[in-house]
Amino acid sequence: MARFPVLLSIPHGGDQMPPEVMAHAVISRRDMLADSDAFTREIYGIKEDAAFIVDASIARIYVDLNRASADLPPANPDGIIKSQSCHGVRIYRHDLWQNQSLVNTLLEKYYHPYHQKIQTILARHNNLELMLDCHSMEAVGPVIGPDQGVERPAICLGSRHGQSCSPSIVKQMANAMRRAFALKEDQLTIDKPFAGGYITRHYGNNPIPCLQIELNRGLYLEKGWLDDGQDARVTAQKIAELHQKFRYALELFFA
C-alpha cells in the first residue's frame, strides 16, 4: 500500500532539555512535561504510512518550534525562548534571552534545522497533497491560553479561518476525524480555540494546504497523570488506540 501523501509536523512532542540550558533552568521535569504535547510523537508517528514525518526531541518549553524566527522575548515571553510555562511557572533563574550567544546557539542547533527539514521536503517532493501540524491540548484552557478555564472539545482543527487550506479540505478532514474517533458533531471544532500557529500560517498553501490538529489530552491522560511519576497514569493501550484512529482518519481522508 502506498504511503499517504502527507507531511506530518510534530513540533511539541519532545521531552528533552538541551544541554546548553542545564546550568540555567530551574523548572522541574514535571512542570516541563505539563507544558508539553505529551506522547504526540507516539500518537501521530505513523512512520509506515505517512510520506514524511518531522518531529523533535527537545521540549517546547526550551525551544518552541511553532513560533516565527523573530518571535523572541522580552517582546513575547511565550516566543521561541520562553520566560515561563503556560501555567505561569518560571523556567530559568535569570533572563536567559539576554545571553544572545546562547539564544543564537539554541536557534542554530534546534530551531532552524527543524524548519530547514520541512522546507527541503516541500521543495523536493511535489507529490505531497497535505501538511498536518500535529499537537495536543489540555482538557481545560490554562493560564496562558485563548480560553482560560474553558472545557475543550475532543479535537480542534485549525485552518487559520480558511487561509491555510480550503474549507472543503477542512470539512473532509473533520468528517474523517469524527468517523475515525467516533465523535459527535460538537466534539470537533474548527478554528476554536486554536486557529493554527506559526507553522500552519507559514506553510499553509505554501505550496500545499496545511491544517493544525489539536487532540484533547483528556482522551488519553488522566487528571493528575504526573503526580505519581511520568508514566504512572498513561496506558500504552490508549496511546496505541489513538495511533490507530489517527491512521484510520487519514485512510478515510485520502480514500
Rounded to an integer, what's the Rg over CA atoms?
18 Å
Strand order of the largest sheet: 2-1-3-6-4-5
Question: Multimeric state of these chains?
Answer: single chain
Strand content: 5-15%
Largest sheet: 6 strands, mixed
Order of helices and strands: EHHEHEEHEHEH
Percent helix: 25-40%
Globally, the shape reads globular
**What's the rounded overall pLDDT mean?**
93
Can you count the helices? 6
Low confidence ranges = none
Break the fold down into its secondary structure elements and pairings.
Blueprint: E1 4-10, H1 29-34, H2 40-44, E2 50-55, H3 100-124, E3 130-137, E4 155-158, H4 167-181, E5 188-190, H5 198-203, E6 210-216, H6 236-254
Parallel strand pairs: 1-2, 1-3, 3-6, 4-5
Antiparallel strand pairs: 4-6
